[in-house]
DNA sequence: ATAAAATCGGAACCGGCAACCCGTTTCGAT
DNA sequence: ATCGAAACGGGTTGCCGGTTCCGATTTTAT
């Protein structure tokens, strides 16, 4: 009787489960990993069930939703990354360690669409898992900067963006093109040295230049109180008409 | 009688159409631009019809498929980029022009999901349109390299990847973070100067290191004739089991 | 061995969307 | 003003994929 749809203590799974259930759970997880790795979250759930050799019902017995399954499938990889970063935080040569670590993470992630999507943070891998990775990486970054191996104006936000950018760059290179070219390029961009461009500072909470919501053109910073959203009267009217239509 | 489902001469549309048809076509195109801009190809077609104030049937009268509509909606922007690049090809200061152009393209594309997807080449914007852009950009790159403003080991492939990477990087920055930081970083990585890393050369058509198809670990270059796909016997067996299951 | 409980499997359900179709409306030539 | 053809629009169809449900099956405790 009692609750039937509780199931799935996502963390410690092996305890107190019937033997077949334990086995099936592992099969599902394995199948999910390989399917998600190839197709990302887009992988159909039926396909995962088929690969695991179970019915879709069984999948739902163990994981309350597709997304929960996804989390379970990728989070351990991310945790592994995090742990590694934490260990490396006390290494001797922070600069070299930083670059090697970054390259390794990228190399190990590129081929794994699920991991890419998870790192991109479109959905939390698991509450905290992604955040922990970010913080561990921040430590490596900071130490590399202290060792003067990474330019000081780069923030952890920049680095996370750069990481994802590298993933998307490396990802769309066909076979026959060297893996890692973009990563190498990105690493070079982090190195201190003779620089031509200053990184644009984050806006001082004031207004800054934006894009016209209709035509994409440049909008001059507003002089009046309300934020300027359109590049001119024509686009503003167009937007109003559109909204009116939307309400109707 | 005759062909009813021909419709949509995608290029010169205004000729020989009834006045209401011409107007509706423009409305649909405009609505498509704005919807795709926000949501990319994922924007539902019904939503586009709604915004245009027409029925879905009308959309299909003018464009044979959703993708054709998408092409029509974005290709003119790309053509604009291409034309601009061609004009700039004869500019005096190839280095500065190159960097300015690159930044501008990124700035004008980031907020436009449709344009991003089109440039990423997941589907041709229009046969040739995307290719033309690439070639025009290649000219700018080459001239900048001749002027010693861009490192010589960067190829047009690298640049295209870098462009898309910048897009994906800038895209996922929330408001309150300066636009263009990643672009600036990327531009710096292109500049010649004291470099620490060599870009990995494209593989000499020989084998190179790959990843294990199961666990993602490193696979040593194969010594035998057949390509090594797994990092060890365990993973190989796992893969075989999986395939067997897939067949059944 | 037996029965209760847990688990399994896959058919059925449901929502969302692209694409199609056809009765109705509008245009514009005469 | 009239009429035929062109265009409209939204209801309908087909498909896909996530989720649920329940009868059948397996495990485990006694």
UniProtKB/TrEMBL annotation, chains A, B:
Signal peptide boundaries: none
UniProt DNA-binding residue ranges: 44-63
Alphabetized UniProt keyword annotations: DNA-binding, Transcription, Transcription regulation
Record domain HTH tetR-type: where: 22-81
Domain of life: Bacteria
Pfam families linked to this entry: TetR_C_43, TetR_N
Transmembrane regions: none
UniProt name for this protein: HTH tetR-type domain-containing protein
Organism encoding this protein: Streptomyces hiroshimensis
